[in-house]
Specification:
Radius of gyration: 37 Å
Number of helices: 21
Number of strands: 41
Number of domains: 6
Largest sheet: 7 strands, mixed
Structural class: alpha+beta
CATH topology of the largest domain: Phenylalanyl-tRNA Synthetase, Chain B, domain 3
CATH superfamily of the largest domain: Phenylalanyl-trna Synthetase, Chain B, domain 3
Shape: globular
Strand order of the largest sheet: 29-32-33-37-36-35-34
CATH class of the largest domain: Alpha Beta
Length: about 850
């Protein structure tokens, strides 16, 4: 999983003094890997904060205004009616007013007109006879549409209204005014065994340990007493599925006011790649991204009620963590309705499911602009149950990605306190009673022991006990020192990751620094022999790449739709029991469907496409008495594709590349047969190469039926190599054949035969006529004027020669006559 981390945000939790580049280089050696760094605010170059001082009507256009904008110390070109430090701009914004704080893009800045199309560079211009130097921008035109959505496309960004706390002078760069100047976002890869690092606090904790700098994060100091019962605080809370939920905290807050979030919160979410929605939803997303603990918010008034505890209390809203019941459905926040199998864990009210536990909330009980009373949720769900439910429904979310990795049951408490703090600050409201906290099992931290000798032996370097203890303490472990034996209590945020004393050794090694450990090749390890198929596959790949072909890499799983589009029936193929998506639910039995998809996606990018892929395909393995099993039978194949928009015979190129492969690897005496009963190949333009009755390759054109299905505009030549058979006959060194000691003679022979006669049959008959015929090579087939209907003319080059002497013209003509006679007897051929 990858996390987008604002360096400015991260510095709130850890004392960093390094540059982002230095930070990324160091932390990647010992922890999460920083893959990319994106500077913030670069898209806002040339965009400044301005203040509207005067608005006048445009003399030539009713819907346009002449707007004078104060840009402070900037010195734009002066026009009629302008004063120093001001710029006159023609603008059609529907919400302009004098004194308005706006975003002004000056000449040279790049904007996206009305938020659509490509970026355009602004230049001084005249609009209906009035000079305009710059542009007063809408949010969507400068990449801020998600932060500041509007109902009217003609509204310009009103900075004073949207960010009332902004207090900067006109002429300040917008990037600086928004707090983006100098910040970068890092794309950090977090390995699946480290769910504790899937939040800003976790990354900060890692950075503090690796860099040995202060960890400055302070949990919320909000003093909220948690009720350890199930029917308080306006909530009746029950965990029915005790095996799947170790803890659930629900907090009811009444009297909240839903609205847009302040800019500081929007900025943090946008840096993380999350679209702001409203203050309540944004708070739950913020807490998840800060602490790594997913949360959810329910609208209390949309939940079914249980009976009231007494006449003075509000109706209790039931929350039940249980498995789905037969026939239950839910409309999730993605707008789709899901049938719920009984293996899926849900959060339910008194009657129906209101969320898919750990995956996604329900649309009907989510917060809206009208929401007044809410319940906040923070829980710990079993990772396997969440993962199975997600795969069963083919539904993923940021919450699910965290829960399925394994989160501690201690995390929800601090996350809930932080969420309550932010709700009270940004949305108001009062907590009803106290948060209700139900746990199905008592939490006990794990402890593991190692010896210092064991650590040094496994790492291979001498590390002092003091340094070992220091490293483990920096990582949050509580250490008991018993001489050479160290016992470490696992911090709660690592309770799904640290499983033995060997894991403690790994922790010490990575913080110490793998780069400090000398690389030594073990003397007892012998190199493993490479698999022959892989070796030959690489040779074929190198040959094809050298011939100008580009390699494709496709998934081993494909969709039913792609198979059907290519003429394959998925019914009898191998299916994945828990596919990540419907696009990856069937194991591919051929490489051709993905080849056609690649051709379709790339046909407009080049006049000629030469593509190939070498990989395994998967068929059902035969069991006893011929019955098919659900076990995969791997079969290595290589598929080659060729299209050229101006080439009318792509199959010739396809056959040529196969002959090149056979020649390179000294595969001789290949017999060619016409393809029969294979729907994907063009009827009449497909052949198969055999040697010793083993199929080596199928060559031809893809049937127009399928190229049209993929909307491919040109004919597609294709090859399917059966690698296992090809490799059986392939050689790395060619056999030597001495050249003919006497001159050879080449003669052309054109004969007219029935249109159903195959060229290969003609070739074999002629080769058997006389040992002096060394080779027969086709060069043309013709039907049309001068050739009778139902007939065709086949033209060939014949190579004639002898190892005994130089043949005379009469001898050569005699051999040619023999060849013609044999063709007449076998096929009724006539000389053309």
């Amino acid at each position: 999983m990858n996390l987008l981390v604002s360096y400015d945000w991260l510095k709130e939790y850890v004392g960093l003094k390094q540059t982002p580049e230095e930070f990324g280089a160091r932390i990647s050696l010992s922890g999460p890997s920083v893959e990319k760094i994106f500077p913030q605010g670069v898209d806002l170059d040339g965009v400044y904060v301005g203040k509207i001082t005067k608005i006048s009507n445009h003399p030539q256009a009713d819907k346009l205004k002449l707007v004078d904008v104060d840009l402070g110390s900037l010195k734009p070109p002066l026009g009629k009616g302008e004063s120093k430090g001001e710029s006159r701009i023609v603008c059609g914004g529907s919400n302009l007013y004098e004194g308005q704080i706006v975003a002004v893009a000056v000449s040279g800045a790049k904007v996206r007109w009305h938020g659509e199309g490509d970026l355009i560079e602004l230049q001084p211009t005249e609009i209906r006879g009035e000079k305009s130097d710059g542009m007063i921008c809408a949010a969507s035109e400068i990449g801020l549409g998600e932060a500041f959505p509007v109902k009217d496309d003609h509204e310009i960004l009103d900075l004073g209204k949207e960010i009332p706390e902004m207090n900067v002078k006109p002429g300040t760069t917008l990037a600086k005014a928004l707090g983006l100047d100098g910040d970068v976002v890092m794309d950090i890869e977090v390995t699946s065994n480290r769910p504790d690092s899937m939040g800003m606090v976790g990354i900060a904790r890692e950075a503090a340990a690796i860099l040995d700098v202060p960890f400055t994060y302070k949990p919320s100091d909000l003093k909220v007493p948690f009720s350890k019962g199930g029917s308080k605080g306006g909530i009746k809370l029950k965990i029915e599925a005790k095996d799947a939920c170790s803890r659930y905290i629900g907090t009811r807050i009444d009297g909240v006011k839903v609205g847009p979030s302040p800019w500081w919160l929007k900025r943090r979410l946008l840096s993380a790649g999350i679209r702001p929605i409203n203050n309540l939803v944004d708070i739950t997303n913020y807490v998840m991204y800060e602490t790594g603990q997913p949360m959810h918010v329910f609208d209390v008034d949309k939940l079914k009620s249980s009976v009231s505890s007494d006449e003075t209390s509000p109706l209790l809203k039931e929350i039940n963590v249980r498995y789905a019941r037969k026939g239950e459905k839910i409309m999730a926040l993605d707008g789709k309705v899901y049938d719920l199998p009984d293996s899926v864990l849900v959060i339910a009210d008194a009657e129906d499911p209101i969320a898919i536990a750990g995956v996604m909330g329900g649309e009907e009980t989510g917060s809206t602009e009208e929401t007044v009373n809410i319940i906040l949720e923070a829980a710990a769900f079993d990772p396997v149950v969440v993962r199975k439910g997600s795969r069963k429904l083919l539904l993923q979310s940021d919450s699910q990605l965290r829960f399925e990795k394994g989160l501690s049951q201690i995390g929800p408490e601090s996350a809930m306190a932080r969420a309550i703090e932010l709700v009270k600050e940004l949305a108001g409201g009062e907590v009803v009673g106290a948060p209700v906290d139900v746990q199905t099992k008592k939490y006990k931290p794990e402890s593991f022991s190692i010896t210092t000798d064991e650590v040094n032996a496994l790492i291979g370097v001498e590390i002092s006990k003091k340094e070992m203890i220091d490293v483990l303490k920096r990582l949050g472990f509580k250490i008991k020192d018993s001489g050479k034996k160290l016992t470490a209590e696992v911090p709660w945020w690592r309770d799904h990751d640290i499983e033995s004393g060997r894991d403690l050794v790994e922790e010490i090694a990575r913080i110490y620094g793998y780069g400090k450990i000398e690389a030594v090749v073990p003397t007892a390890v012998a190199p493993r022999k490479s698999d022959d198929i892989i070796v030959w596959e690489d040779r074929i790949k190198d040959l094809l790449a050298g011939a100008g072909y580009t390699e494709l890499y496709g998934y081993s799983f494909v969709s039913k739709d792609l198979l059907a589009k290519s003429g394959f029936d998925a019914k009898d193929l191998l299916h994945v029991q828990n596919p990540l998506t419907v696009e990856l639910e069937v194991m591919r039995s051929s490489l051709i469907p993905q080849l056609l998809e690649a051709v379709a996606n790339n046909q407009e990018r080049a006049d000629t496409l030469r593509l190939f892929e070498c990989s395994n395909v998967y068929l059902r393995k035969a069991g006893k008495k011929g019955a098919w099993t659900d076990l995969p039978d791997e079969n290595p194949q290589c598929v080659i594709g060729y299209i050229e928009h101006k080439n009318g015979s792509p199959w010739r190129e396809a056959k040529g590349i196969v002959e090149y492969i056979f020649d390179t690897f000294d595969i001789k005496d290949v017999k060619w047969k016409r393809v029969s009963q294979d729907d994907i190949w063009h009827p009449g333009r497909g052949v198969q190469a055999y040697k010793d009755d083993k199929l080596l390759a199928t060559v031809g054109e893809i049937s127009p039926k399928y190229t049209e299905a993929f909307k491919i505009e040109s004919r597609v030549g294709a090859v399917q190599l059966e690698l296992r058979n090809v490799i059986n006959f392939a050689k790395t060194h060619k056999s030597y054949t001495p050249p003919m000691p006497f001159p050879e003679s080449k003669r052309d022979l054109a004969i007219v035969v029935g249109e159903d006669v195959e060229y290969r049959d003609i070739e074999l008959v002629i080769l058997k006529v006389n040992d002096l015929i060394l080779n027969v090579e086709w060069f043309d087939t013709y039907q049309g004027k001068g050739v009778a209907e139902g007939k065709k003319s086949v033209a060939m080059h014949l190579t004639i020669g002898s190892r005994e002497k130089t043949l005379t013209s009469q001898e050569i003509d005699g051999v040619l006559e023999e060849a013609l006679l044999a063709a007449k007897e076998k096929f009724g051929a006539e000389l053309r």
